[in-house]
Amino acid sequence: MRVLAGLTLVAAACLYAQTDDPAVIQAKTEIERLRKLVDAGAAPRLQLEKAEAALGDAEDSAFLRKTLYGQDLTESQADDMVAAAARRFERRKKAYDDAKKLVDMGAASSLSLDTYVQDMDMARKECDLADARAKLTHEIAGMAQTEEWFTVRMATAPTEAHAIAERFDGDGVFSMATFSHVESAFEDKFGRPLPVSAMGETAVHRALGFDHRGRVDVALNPDAPEGAWLRAYLTANRIPFFAFRQAVPGKATGAHIHIGPMSTRLANGG
Ligand SMILES: [Zn+2]
Fold first, then answer.
1. C-alpha span between 216 and 53 (Å, rounded)
2. Which residues are placed with Cβ below 5 angstroms of ligand 1, an ion?
3. Cα(259) to centroid(ligand 1), Å
4. How far is the CA of 144 from the centre of ligand 1 (A)?
5. For residues 4 and 133, is the Cβ–Cβ distance under 8 A?
6. 42 CA distance to ligand 1 centroid (A)?
7. How would residue 248 be classed by pLDDT, with cut points 50, 70 and 90?
8. 12-52, pLDDT tens digit by residue?
9. From its phi and psi, is residue 224 left (phi > 0), alpha (psi between -120 and 50) or beta?
10. How far is ligand 1, taken at its centre, from the CA of residue 218, in Å?
11. From the CA of 214, how far away is ligand 1's center (Å)?
């Protein structure tokens, strides 16, 4: 999450709404120009088709800039992001394959392939980044859904709810000042940052209609050594937490430690 926060800052400078993206506007202008020429019989239709493909690519690129490096995501945005990265890779692979044919026929030098290989490598890295970001989004969603499952169970079947999460109310208060002590204590103990997966509310929580403001999720299994240490620290300092040991059925991930009181429904539902 710290890495993502850094990426978010880097990307803020190059963040465009899709319609304002200069490359998209340029591609649309080019299509208009070519369409007139094609209609007038002054340009081949193939050229227009190429321009339309370039527009699709520019739109995918603008979407990736927004999602890969920008705001936090819902699960469906994360899936769209992975699909956009895959389309960008496929276009570059096709361009490479076409160029390779010319080389194989002896119509071009093999040196001419370098640019295509570089473009393909860049697109592959973009795919890897999209996959990693989507995986994290699905993990955050798994944890959020586990919390939602728990709150529903608390209301309908309290005995079962106890099996989903260990609850510690402490003195009932949790603030960001308290959290900075938790972070430092963890870092002093383990020499690495506390693995925070959701700091306050996220797009995933908003999509669920879940008020996660002022709460923090930590991606630690409560029974692993670091998770056990964190539970002991929170207990000793009377900081409220919920330790989740299992995932909502159908979700791969869910185990985590939620610090703060349990989330409530957002006032406007969800
Ligand atoms: Zn939580």
1. 43
2. 215, 217, 258
3. 7
4. 6
5. yes
6. 61
7. confident
8. 333 444 467 888 999 999 999 999 999 999 889 999 999 99
9. beta
10. 8
11. 10
Percent of the chain scoring above 70 in pLDDT? 91
Q: How far apart are the first and last CA of the chain?
A: 25
Average pLDDT over residues 151-158: 89
CA 123 to chain centre: 18
- Distance between Cα 66 and ligand 1 center (Å): 25
Q: How many angstroms separate the alpha carbon of residue 224 from the centre of ligand 1?
A: 18
pLDDT of 5: 41
Measured in Å, residue 17 CA sits from the centre of ligand 1 at 30
Ligand 1 center from residue 23 Cα (angstroms): 39
Query: What is the rounded distance in angstroms from the CA atom of residue 58 to the CA atom of residue 21?
Result: 8
pTM of the full predicted structure?
Answer: 0.78
pLDDT for res 266: 72
- Map out the domains of the chain as residue ranges: 2-139, 142-265
